[in-house]
Amino acid sequence: MAGTRGFTGRGRSADPRLPPGQHDTGSGWPVLTAEVTPSVDLSRWTMTVDGLVGRLASWTWDELRALPTTTWSGDIHCVTTWSKLGTSFRGVSVDVLLEAAGPGPGAAFVLATSTTGYTTNLPLADLTGGRAWVVWEHEGRPLPVEHGGPVRLLVPHLYFWKSAKWVTRLTVLDRDEPGFWERNGYHDRGDPWLEQRYQGD
Amino acid sequence: MTGTSASAGPAGPAGSGSLTAPTSWATGVVREVRHHAGGAVVLRLAVDGMGPRLPGQHVVVRLRADDGYTASRSYSVASDPADPLVELYVERLVDGEVSGYLGDVVEVGDELEVRGPVGGWFVWDGVRPALAVGGGSGVVPLVSMLRHAGSTGHPDRVCLVAAARTLERLPYADELVGGCQVVALSQERSPAGREPGRLVAADLEPLLRTGQQVFVCGSSAFAEHASRLVVDLGVPAADVRVERFGPSG
Ligand SMILES: Cc1cc2nc3c(=O)[nH]c(=O)nc-3n(C[C@H](O)[C@H](O)[C@H](O)COP(=O)(O)OP(=O)(O)OC[C@H]3O[C@@H](n4cnc5c(N)ncnc54)[C@H](O)[C@@H]3O)c2cc1C
């Protein structure tokens, strides 16, 4: 396709960590949320895995933090075209949570739900094998509420709307059920390296 | 997103919940260019084959350099869905890659790659009474709602509260008069006599109605501040939809 008249663009980043169409936001971390930031009461907070599972599994805030933790370091990519490179989070692998619940036969998708009612859908395969976490620390500090604290999902190999803020529930399903942004035109999987931004990409 | 670093939003589908997915890229031909104070620009585009729009939606604009490098950004649509042209109001940011190009280089007759309309959450259904609160360029999608209310014969269905530093920096200031429009300027007295100062609860309180849908749009910092004011005034969080523009926060 022909170029846009007179557009040269800012310096190309040769950084191989940047997926197509993304730019480096540096030390910034934009906040993009579709609603009022909630206040979460940790004394009544629970994390639950339900749906197509052998047994419903649930953790209080203290129980969650007693699970074996992992620190993940790497890059995150927002569909609005910024990427944040070389950042880190700490929490528990989703593998640990799913293992406790035991996904049943036919389990293939997960719908993540937040305290606010926000939902996002993911193939089960994207949440397993050490590629997804439930996290409460960012770069050594408690995860700020505007970034999904106390606890958010972290699925860094997909666009960041999949990493549901304020997550409290993972529901295992045998079929794909579009979440909030997915019903509103965004892609069901959201692989930044394939630029799966919108439905049809 | 509607954008979205891991955006959150309530589960309820927007309106009917039936959203046209943004399809492929289309060509937008620039039909009008109007420059404003501070480098802001209004662009009016004829986009071939764009489907029906809803007030509050945005489009994605993609610029392409000769070597294939591209940069895309989201811009809210200011025009009424009944307007055949897609109108954008772009605030020019210092060093802004895309806003700089749109503000400085674009001329009538240029072609831009456009995709959309995008978004099914931050949209007004045209019926439910709405309080729209915008800061700076966050006023843009709300102006589409206001224009839609006017063109459908129900101007009183949308009350728009617009905040900016100065009147000159306020997008569409000339349309934000009369009705239940409020202009809150932080650095100067507003035309209606409001003293300078940031947006406060007293600016919003007289416009609250039960059953109202609230739309808040602007920078992250503005959206956080304004949505907090609205919720503290007793509006259920579930009735508040927020759109945060880009990293300026
Ligand atoms: C849903 C949605 C709707 C929107 N609607 C509108 C609208 O109606 N009108 C409007 O004006 N905007 C709107 N925006 C914002 C818009 O999409 C862009 O973010 C904005 O125009 C800035 O893009 P840019 O390319 O000019 O700036 P960018 O080049 O992305 O830069 C943004 C700022 O960050 C700084 N910056 C960026 N990258 C770097 C870097 N590598 N190093 C140092 N500094 C850097 C720049 O100096 C600049 O100040 C909307 C955003 C969203 C998500």
Automatic annotation (TrEMBL), chain A:
Domain Oxidoreductase molybdopterin-binding per the UniProt entry, residue ranges: 37-181
Coiled-coil intervals, chain numbering: none
InterPro entries, per the entry: OxRdtase_Mopterin-bd_dom, OxRdtase_Mopterin-bd_sf
Gene3D superfamilies according to UniProt: Oxidoreductase, molybdopterin-binding domain
Record region (Disordered): 1-30
CDD domains reported for this sequence: arch_bact_SO_family_Moco
Record protein name field: Sulfite oxidase-like oxidoreductase
Organism field: Aquipuribacter hungaricus
From TrEMBL, chain B:
UniProt name for this protein: FAD-binding oxidoreductase
Keywords: 2Fe-2S, Iron, Iron-sulfur, Metal-binding
Keyword Metal-binding: yes
Entries under InterPro entries matching the protein: Cbr1-like_FAD-bd_dom, FAD-bd_FR_type, FNR_nucleotide-bd, MRET, OxRdtase_FAD/NAD-bd, Riboflavin_synthase-like_b-brl
Domain of life: Bacteria
Region (Disordered): 1-22
Lineage: Bacteria, Bacillati, Actinomycetota, Actinomycetes, Micrococcales
Metal-binding found in the keyword field: yes
Record-annotated FAD-binding FR-type domain positions: 23-124
Coiled coil: none
